Structure formats: structure tokens, C-alpha cells
């Protein structure tokens, strides 16, 4: 018995929907995987400008707390006048003037410093490479020997070698710069100076009496830059670990 096959026209009618469906799917897939083209008007945007480049971010530098290398206590500043001469010359004014000049000179040498009051709250646990308290001696006439400077460190401290070096640097440079002699009448008020017990144990400290307000008045009032230079040189001697110069004999 012969099998009757469908004609070509019948087959075409039968498979046409299938062909159209497959073609639609292929076109959809082709569109999904093809990047859309962007028309560019002549002379406008260059396609290369669409390439995204990372924007450089500024480097973040943390702000560090201010950490001075040197603390300068201007004796009696913010508390009282200190010694006073009959004509009204006050010790506190001498001390503050010299401390200000020392700070300026240290700044010029790139050394951070700050001026503190006599009983400054900052002194409690104060941290710095060194602390120096600046004072002047009595204005009363005692005798012809009441002239010269004094330097002392705490009688009891946790860093005796560093304290001794600071004292020796200050003594030598101050004597060489100002020409004053060292007066040996160091008092308990100096060795037991209140700030020595308030600052952090690692802060090396000393106190200096820059001269007597009577016999050394001209130096203290008319040549304060010379006084400040002597102190500054002594501080730099300590900070830079310089050799301590020998004071020439009078």
C-alpha cells in the first residue's frame, strides 16, 4: 500500500510559525549581547572620552597633637609680680620678656616651644623634651657679690644624668654669652621648685635665675636679647647633644 506524503506547500504552512518563533528568539538574544551604538555628531564628543579613569584621591594626613620640645615658664607670670624694685621694675616683666625672646629664637632654629604661666594647669603631667623656668633675682642690694646667674635642677629626679647635662649646657653657654659669673647661692626654692613635682617624670627640667635685678639691671633691662641668646644656646646644646664648652676663667 503506498504512503501518502504531504506536499511542499503543506510543509511550508506547517513549519512557518516555528521558523518565525526561532528567528524572533535569535534576534532578541543578538540584541541583548550587542552593545548599543551611540550616535556622535560630527565635531562633538570623542568616543574615547567615554572611557572612565579613576579620580585621584587626596592623601589623608592625620592631624597630630601639638607636641612642643621645650616648655618655658615665665616666672611669676599669671600669678604675681615677683621681686619689685623701688622704682617699680617688676621681675615678672623681665621674665616674660626674656621667655618671649627665647621662644622667638628657638622658633627661628626650628624648635617648637611654648610659654607657660607660673602655675599653669598644663604643668600637671607636662610632657616635653625639657622644661625651663626663667626667673630673676632680688632687686635689694645685698653686697657687691650679689651679681651673677644660677642654674639648678630638681634635687631628686628620675633622670639625674640628663638633668645634669641640661644644667651644664645652660651654665656654660649662659656664662660665655652674657659674661656673668655663676653665683653659687642655689636655694631650696630652686631645687624644690614646685613644677619639678608636677611635670611628667620623663620631662627633664631646670630653673635659671638670669641675674640680680640690682647689680645686673643693665643686662636684664637693656640687653635682654643677650640674656635670651645665652639661654637659647644652652637649650640647643642639650637638644642637639653638643659638646659642653669650657667657660674661660675671668
Structure in words:
The protein is an alpha/beta fold and 250 residues long. The protein has a domain at 70-239: Zn-dependent exopeptidases (Aminopeptidase, 3-Layer(aba) Sandwich), CATH 3.40.630.40. The chain has 6 helices and 5 strands. It has helices at residues 8-32, 91-108, 160-178, 188-191, 217-222, 224-239, and strands at residues 70-74, 113-116, 130-137, 150-152, 204-212. A 5-stranded mixed β-sheet has the order 2-1-3-5-4. The longest helix has 25 residues, at 8-32. The chain is globular, with a radius of gyration of 42 Å. The chain starts with 7 loop residues before the first helix and ends in an 11-residue tail after the last helix.
Summarize the structure.
The chain has 250 residues and is α/β, with parallel strands linked by helices.
Query: Mind telling me which CATH architecture of the domain at 70-239 this is?
Result: 3-Layer(aba) Sandwich
For the biggest sheet, the summary is: 5 strands, mixed
Q: State the share of residues found in helices, binned by percent.
A: 25-40%
CATH homologous superfamily of the domain at 70-239? Answer: Zn-dependent exopeptidases
* Overall pLDDT: 83
Strand content: 5-15%
CATH C-level label of the domain at 70-239: Alpha Beta
Output the number of helix runs. Answer: 6
Contiguous runs where pLDDT drops below 50 for at least 5 residues: 1-8, 33-45, 60-66
Q: Structural class, from helix and strand content? A: alpha/beta
Report how far the terminal alpha carbons are from each other.
149 Å
Radius of gyration: 42 Å
N-to-C SSE string, H for helix and E for strand:
HEHEEEHHEHH
Strands side by side in the biggest sheet: 2-1-3-5-4
Under CATH, the topology of the domain at 70-239 can be stated as Aminopeptidase
Q: How many distinct beta strands? A: 5
Q: What shape does the CA trace take? A: globular
